[in-house]
Structure formats: structure tokens, C-alpha cells
Amino acid sequence: MDLGVVELSRLQFAATALFHFLFVPLTLGLAVVVAIMETVYVMTERPIWRQMTKFWGLLFGINFALGVATGITMEFQFGMNWAYYSHYVGDIFGAPLAIEGLMAFFLEATFVGLWFFGWDRLSRRQHLVVGWLVALGSNFSALWILIANGWMQFPVGAQFNPITMRMELVSFFEVMFNPVAQAKFVHTVSAGYVTASVFVLGVSAWYLLGGRHVELARRSIAVASAFGLASALSVVVLGDESGYDAGENQKMKMAAIEAMWETEPAPASFTLLGWPDQQARETKWAIHIPYVMGLIGTRSLTEEIKGIDQLEAEARTRVENGIRAYDLMMQIQAQRGADVDPALIDAFREHEHDLGHALLLKRYVEDPRQATAEQIARAAADTVPTVWPIFWAFRIMVGLGFGFIALMGYFFWRASFRRMRFPRWALRLAVLVIPAPWIAAELGWIVAEFGRQPWTVADVLPTALSVSHLSVAEVALTLAGFCLLYTALFVVEIGLMLKFIRQGPHEDVELTQEWMASHRQRLAGRSEVRS
């Protein structure tokens, strides 16, 4: 196999996925924030909330359109760059993607149009229902995408057919309610809510610093800080659930996150900071917090978390057992076209769990049955991902998460108990923090996907076997094309967002101003009566 094609294909998919995820979290979060604002408008009938809904809804629409453009090309890559992967697991992986397109995306896309063009054609309540359906569709899209991704992390509800040499779906219920997928969904969606909250908070802070659109900005900060605080707290709680699932079902990823080279006696400590040295198999200058990793990974103080060295030794055993499964599969293939001996099938079922580990040998030898002890050892070593990017990405992500809690908590306190009076230093900080949720989200995906290597589907299909039969030049050319296209789209996105942010709300301006003037008079009258 040409490893250059494998690495370039990985780089291309990583680049397009990370570009696409610049748009996704803001879409998820803004859809809900806008729906909340419209709910307040319908309940109070105050024009300022209608103006807020339209303004933030416009920014949502820009982001949504470009997110769709970048997302569609990702699905085509499975056929273009990952043809064998699509052949091998398409029966399972394709189902949630198809449902996402037919149900969630069509729901979202249809009601987005109704939302933008239905202001004067629908009643207030009808339009509000449309707004919440847009938010529901956005979240449903994320659900089905993350069910597909969660299956790659922890494949359940499927079985390999040694006759067709493909994975086949045996329980859609198990795929849908995969614990890794469900934990990943709620964690990712909550992160999207935080992203939108920080965005609304930062833009509103910028308006207050300039003394523009003050009423809109103050109310927007009130919504963003309350929603953002709840979301930031849920990200931490749900992130803990993801950590527990990784400890149960993705042990090598958990060990890499912690840079835990050797199995520690229970309860394992958490490495707050350190420098992982993969060659020496040690973490230098490590600062440990007792018990914490045991609680995160096992929810107990008595269960151990396996270290990388032990997991690698177990992987070597699985490679050796997988060779037996591969041999039985080849015997079954030799009987294709005739009645396959049921005893062969039964024997294969006893060893099929380790077949994927035998396929790791394909990187070094055409027929795994001919592998040497050295090649087996190298295949086992391949199950250890590069530790330092995962280790640091996780810690930066978590640090930012706690920072969002502090930021949202402070603004919620000022909005609720200090009459929405915000110090200028806090407003400047809110503006500066706007990019931080995207950094945290991208780092989260690096932990999730980089930590799964060397597998496309964990323990089932190695990444090195998943690619299409392409040349290095072909993949490099499409990689360059995608990067140019996505960079252009990103520039368009930033340009449009900045243009309309600078312009500010421009709809229902006179109606809102009249209402605000009348509202101030009513407040002044009440003050005179009290005095």
C-alpha cells in the first residue's frame, strides 16, 4: 500500500472536517438562541425582541448556508478517498447518514426558508413554531452524524460476514443508542450552545463598548449569559460522561489522553500538566492530582485504568489471535460458490473479534499469515497513537471549558444583580474571547479522531486499508483544491458576518425606537408617582 496516499487522504479529510466544524457549532447554538429570543417576543410582544430575533437570525442564516456548502463535500469524500471503507462498512455507516439527509437536513432546510420569508405570512405563534423546528432540525442533524461517528469509535450492532467480506447491520437499535454516540452528541451540542453564547456575548459587548444598539446588546447579553452558563456547566458534566465511556470502551484513547504509560494501582491519579516523551515512555515533570482519573475513567476508587504498555501487550495477543481469524476467512473464501462448511463459520465466529488486529499486518506483509514476530510487534505498536497532541489538546480544551463557566457566570451575575452594568475590562475580555469556543471544539475533535488511530473503525478496520486506489498526485491535487475552496468560503463567511455586525440591526428600527421611547416614559412616570 502507498502510505503517502493514506496520509494525504487523512490530511484532506481532517482539513475539510475542521473547516466544516467552524460553522457547525455556531449553527447549533444560534438556532436555539434565536428561538429563545423569539419566544420572549411572542410572550411579551415587545418590538425590541423581534428586532433581536431578526438580527441574530440573519447571522445564523449566513453561517447556516456556508455550513451546508462545506458539509456536503465531506460526504462525497467517503466515495472518493475512502472507497474501501465505504464498501466495508457502508451498510452500517450509510444508514444514519441517509436518515440525517432525509429527515433532519430536509426538516432544517425547509423551515429555514419559512422562517426567513414567513414573518409577514405567518402568525407570531406559527412563526415561533417554525423557529423551534429549525433548531430541532439542526440538532437532529448533529444527532445522526454523531451516531455514525460514534459507531466508528465503538462499533456495535454489526457483524462481519466472511463470505461477502463486509460488515452487516444486525441491530439498528444498538447503533442508534450506542453509549459513545449518545455521550458525544450531548457533549458536542452543548459545546455548540456555548459557542453561540460566547459569540452573542462578544458581539453585544462590542456594541456596548461603542455605545451602539445598547438596548439590543444588553438584552442579548442577558440571554447569552444565562443560556451560556447552563451550557458551559453541562459541557463539563457531559464531558465527564464521555470520559467514563472512553474508559469503558476506548481504553487506548483514555490512556493516551492521560499519557499513562504503565497501569497504576487504583485509584489512578490525573496528570494536570507534564511533557509526554513517547520514545522514553514517560511523562516528564508531571503534576499529579490523586484519585481524579480513577473517578473520571471508572467512577470508582477500586478499579484500575490500564496503561499504554499493558494495552499494547494485549494488542499483540489480539494480532496473533486475529491471524487465526484471517486464515479461517481465507478458507471460507476458497469455498465461495459452493456450500461453505458450517464448522468453518463457527470457528471463525470464535476468533472474529480479533480479525481487525490481523489486518494491521497488511501494512507490512500482504498475507498476515506470513507475518514474522517482528512484524506482529510493529502492528501491536501501531495501536498506540501519538500521545502528545492528544494529551495537550485535551488539557487546553478542558481549561477553556472552565474559563467559559467563569466568564458566563460573571456576566450572568452582572446582568441579574447589577442592573446590566458591565465594566469595560469585562466587555473587552468578552470580545477577545470570541474565537476561544472554536479552538476548544477543534481540539475536542483532535482528541476524538486522533485518539482513535490507527483505526477508521475501532478494532475493525485499520485506516491504512480504508483508502481508495488513487495516486499521491491525485490526492494532493484535490487536497489543494479543497483548501483553496474552503479558505475562500471562510473569507466570505468572515466578510459577511463582519459586514452585518458593523451594520447592526436594520429591521423594525422605527417601531423599536418608538416602543423604547414610550417604555422610558412609562418608567419615568412610575418613578414620579413613587417619589
Please give a structural write-up.
By secondary structure, the protein is mainly α. Helix content is 73%, strand content 5%. The chain has 19 helices and 6 strands. The strands form 3 sheets. Strands 1-2 form a two-stranded antiparallel ribbon. Strands 3-4 form a two-stranded antiparallel ribbon. A hairpin with a 4-residue loop joins strand 1 (158-161) and strand 2. Helix 4 packs antiparallel against helix 5 (124-153) and helix 8 (214-249) runs antiparallel to helix 15. The longest helix has 36 residues, at 214-249. The radius of gyration is 26 Å and the shape is globular. The model has no long low-confidence stretch (mean pLDDT 88). Keywords: Cell inner membrane, Cell membrane, Electron transport, Heme, Iron, Membrane, Metal-binding, Oxidoreductase, Transmembrane, Transmembrane helix, Transport.
State the main characteristics.
mainly alpha, two-stranded antiparallel sheet, 73% helix, 531 residues, 19 helices
Weakly predicted, low-confidence segments: none
Structural class: mainly alpha
Report the major sheet.
2 strands, antiparallel
Q: Given the C-alpha coordinates, what overall shape results?
A: globular
Please estimate the helix content: over 70%
Assembly type of the chains comes to single chain
Order of helices and strands: HHHHHEEHHHHEEHHHHHHHHEEHH
Instruction: Please state the CA-atom Rg, rounded to the nearest Å.
Output: 26 Å
Mean pLDDT: 88
Strand content: 5-15%
Total helical segments: 19
Terminal Cα separation, in Å?
A: 85 Å
Strand tally is 6
Order of strands, main sheet, comes to 1-2
